[in-house]
């Protein structure tokens, strides 16, 4: 693995091409097409970090995010400090809840207070 460097996003990266994720997702569009679609469908009040050169994150695992080129970024911004990305226990509990009842917190449900 390459030693950490800092790029123009001020984020630690390392070469993550050999890291496997149990939460791998298919990349449907190129970075440019994703950005164009975002500009069409997402309101401008929704901030995009590094607007001039945005990161396209295609997967996450633990405390790391990976871009479409396979670069590995230490995530110091999102809610990773709570449980990390793609935590198997959290994913399983969410899956169980969504399989049972997919509603919001405006209704009373036992699992709302259990989770």
UniProtKB/TrEMBL annotation:
SUPFAM superfamilies: PLP-dependent transferases (SSF53383)
Cellular-component GO terms for this entry: mitochondrion
Signal peptide: none
Record's protein name: Uncharacterized protein
Family of the protein in this entry: Belongs to the class-III pyridoxal-phosphate-dependent aminotransferase family.
Gene3D superfamilies from the UniProt entry: Aspartate Aminotransferase, domain 1 (3.90.1150.10), Type I PLP-dependent aspartate aminotransferase-like (Major domain) (3.40.640.10)
């Amino acid at each position: 693995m390459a030693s950490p460097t800092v790029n123009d996003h001020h984020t630690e990266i390392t070469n993550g091409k050999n890291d496997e994720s149990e939460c791998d997702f298919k990349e449907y569009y190129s970075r440019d097409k994703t950005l164009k679609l975002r500009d069409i469908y997402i309101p401008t009040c929704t901030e995009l970090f590094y607007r001039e050169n945005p990161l396209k994150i295609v997967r996450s695992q633990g405390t790391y995010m990976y871009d479409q080129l396979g670069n590995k970024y230490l995530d110091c911004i999102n809610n990773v400090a709570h449980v990390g990305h793609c935590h198997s226990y959290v994913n399983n509990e969410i899956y169980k809840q969504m399989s049972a009842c997919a509603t919001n917190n405006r209704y009373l449900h036992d699992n709302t207070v259990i989770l």
